[in-house]
């Protein structure tokens, strides 16, 4: 009984943070749908360039996204901001002569080059401020400065993206995987508080190197987002026999945070993690695989971040949603068919009555593996499946949360995993 009041207060706070009630924004009561000043903005929040290990120049990458109907893009190179003078030897860049020739053809008057003492051709990497001044168009296209804070613990890669940062965040390290994540989250939140600039941090590709488990992620304070879909072919979104998929990790994290840990909901992002821009499609990490659709009042970093933090977005690897509605008693999702595309709607959730204890997965010698624990199949169970262009799930009040995954009949044209269908993921809704 002692937990009744705190839990009740917590549920109120969670409901305010969730889709159904959001007094701080202009999204009308319960609907994610464009209209009036509200528009859907398509964006990618994970992008590499010649500033780290991508194979193209910022301006060429920005133009690719602009020309493929994106409205915003966050540059997130590893542990660096594109804010200083930097010259590179053309032949030594990841994109080599090919990328340089394309840059020169596209921007003949803008390129700055020189020959170094060894006779090698060098080009100056344009800074973020120069590129955004050149490519940004008010209301149509926005570049946002970001960073992939690339940390590690005992050789496990721990990467987090900071979007709209003002200053470089050096990896903070820690004495465990969870502490490493927490220290980096805290560093970005501290910068936000100190500078007054809205910025967010999200955990990238938990299954890259199978570094981050649901148990690591579930307790992180101030962590509101993680990548449920990352388009890089090496990040194991689907997991394997002994490793949970990123969707399974999401459900375990949600069930634990909402049912046991008194922590807020965590939202799922889809991103590209693009590195390779010259041979599309291929089996590399290319642009165009995963993105977010954010419902916001205007195309500014502040407005986008406010909407993201309020859960006013969905994530997609191809499926277009027309609306997501919830009044706290039901969740209705409407998709937009392109041609003869059909959809499967799966409403996933965890009930309050579901046992939440997990147990380690053991290797053949009976030793626990450093992987996400095994939980009841009822964690993240499919509560309802239907097909058509829209679907509704009526809450019965016993759910901790419900989310919807929409799968298209169309296969992804350039998948990160073989056989992948195009999908969309709504954010979790907490019943009233
Ligand atoms: Zn990474
Ligand atoms: Zn990355």
Short summary:
With 432 residues, the chain is of the alpha+beta class. It contains eight helices and 20 strands.
Q: How would a textbook summarize the main sheet? A: 11 strands, mixed
Q: Low-confidence segments, ≥5 residues, pLDDT <50?
A: 1-26
Strand content: 25-35%
Number of helices: 8
Q: Mean of residue pLDDT?
A: 93
N→C terminal distance: 21 Å
CATH architecture title of the largest domain: Alpha-Beta Barrel
Estimated radius of gyration: 22 Å
Fill in the keyword field for this structure.
single chain; 432 residues; alpha+beta; TIM Barrel; 2 domains; 11-stranded mixed sheet; 4-stranded antiparallel sheet; 8 helices; binds zinc ion
Please, could you describe this protein's structure?
This protein is α+β, with helices and mostly antiparallel strands. The protein folds into 2 domains: 369 residues, Alpha-Beta Barrel (TIM Barrel); 38 residues, no CATH class. It is 21% helix and 28% strand. A hairpin with a 5-residue loop joins strand 5 and strand 6. Helix 2 packs parallel to helix 4. The chain binds zinc ion (ZN) (2 copies).
């Amino acid at each position: 009984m002692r937990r009744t009041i705190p839990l009740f207060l917590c549920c109120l706070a969670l409901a305010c943070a969730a889709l159904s009630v959001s007094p701080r924004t202009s999204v009308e009561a319960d609907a994610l749908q464009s209209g009036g000043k509200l528009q859907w903005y398509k964006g990618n929040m994970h992008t590499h360039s010649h500033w780290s290990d991508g194979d193209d120049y910022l301006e060429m990458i920005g133009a690719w996204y602009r020309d493929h109907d994106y409205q915003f893009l966050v540059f997130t190179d590893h542990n660096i901001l594109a804010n200083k003078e930097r010259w590179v030897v053309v032949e030594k860049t990841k994109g080599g002569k090919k990328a340089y020739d394309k840059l020169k053809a596209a921007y003949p008057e803008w390129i700055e080059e020189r020959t170094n003492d060894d006779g090698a051709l060098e080009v100056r990497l344009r800074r973020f401020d120069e590129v955004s001044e050149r490519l940004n168009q008010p209301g149509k296209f926005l570049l946002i400065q970001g960073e992939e804070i690339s940390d590690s613990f005992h050789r496990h890669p721990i990467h987090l993206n900071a979007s709209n940062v003002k200053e470089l965040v050096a990896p903070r390290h820690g004495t465990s995987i969870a502490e490493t994540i927490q220290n980096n989250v805290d560093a970005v939140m501290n910068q936000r508080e100190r500078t007054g600039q809205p910025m967010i941090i999200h955990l990238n590709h938990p299954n890259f190197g199978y570094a981050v488990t649901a148990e690591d992620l579930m307790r992180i304070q101030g962590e509101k987002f993680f990548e449920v879909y990352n388009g890089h072919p090496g990040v194991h979104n689907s997991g394997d026999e002994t490793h949970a998929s990123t969707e399974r990790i999401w459900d375990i994290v949600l069930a634990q945070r909402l049912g046991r840990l008194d922590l807020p909901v965590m939202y799922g992002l889809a991103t590209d993690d693009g590195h390779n821009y010259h041979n599309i499609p291929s089996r590399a990490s290319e642009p165009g695989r995963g993105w977010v659709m954010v419902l916001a009042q205007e195309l500014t970093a502040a407005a986008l971040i406010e909407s993201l933090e309020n859960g006013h977005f969905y994530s997609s690897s191809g499926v277009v949603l027309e609306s997501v509605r919830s009044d706290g008693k039901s969740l209705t999702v409407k998709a937009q068919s392109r041609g003869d595309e059909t959809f499967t709607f799966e409403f996933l959730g965890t009930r309050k009555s579901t046992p939440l204890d997990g147990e380690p997965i053991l290797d053949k010698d009976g030793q626990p593996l450093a992987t996400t624990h095994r939980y009841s199949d009822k964690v993240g169970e499919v509560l309802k499946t239907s097909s058509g262009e829209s679907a509704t799930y009526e809450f019965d009040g016993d759910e901790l949360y419900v989310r919807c995954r929409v799968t298209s009949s169309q296969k992804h044209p350039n998948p990160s995993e073989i056989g992948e269908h195009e999908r969309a993921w709504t954010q979790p809704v907490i019943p009233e």
